[in-house]
Amino acid sequence: IKRGVAHITGIDISANMLEIAKEKCPSAVLICGDAEIFSFTEKYDCIMIYNAFPHFADPDLLFKNLSAALAENGRLTVAHGMSEKALQQCHSGKAQRISQPLPSKERLKEMMSDYLDVDIMISDEEKYIVSGTKK
């Protein structure tokens, strides 16, 4: 496991996506479930929502649930490996049925602020990252 990470847990509502994850990281614990409502029994130092945020129907429920699963001083990050504009274009076709528009980094900070102290906001031509630590 890269970067000294001792343990990786992944959750996805799609069994197909979990199969892909298992190929990429065979040692990860993978859960087929809905991150908005899944009852996590562990506390995590870091939670990453990567290339997935627009697919969650209830962001407030998601942040409430995931922040509860964070350890003290844990960090939650929403990240996309492309610009906000590129992601909107990508989701303007068939994906529009299963995704919501990505909010601006300022709006996402507001959405996260009940649960996290947001200290990182980046939105440029290559990436989109909003991250904070548990309150």
Description:
With 135 residues, the protein is of the alpha/beta class. A 4-stranded mixed sheet has the order 3-4-6-5. The protein has a two-stranded parallel sheet with strand order 1-2. It starts with 8 loop residues before the first strand and ends with a strand. The relative contact order is 0.15. The model has no long low-confidence stretch (mean pLDDT 89).
Keywords:
135 residues; globular; two-stranded parallel sheet; four-stranded mixed beta sheet; 4 helices; alpha/beta
User: What is the element string, with H for helices and E for strands?
Assistant: EHEEHEHHEE
Q: In what order do the strands lie side by side in the largest sheet?
A: 3-4-6-5
β content, as a range?
Answer: 25-35%
Measured between the Cα atoms of the first and last residue, the distance is 28 Å
SS content category:
alpha/beta
Low-confidence stretches: none
pLDDT average, as an integer? Answer: 89
Shape: globular
Q: Residue share in helices?
A: 25-40%
Number of helices: 4
Record field, number of beta strands: 6
Radius of gyration, whole Å: 15 Å
Major β-sheet profile: 4 strands, mixed
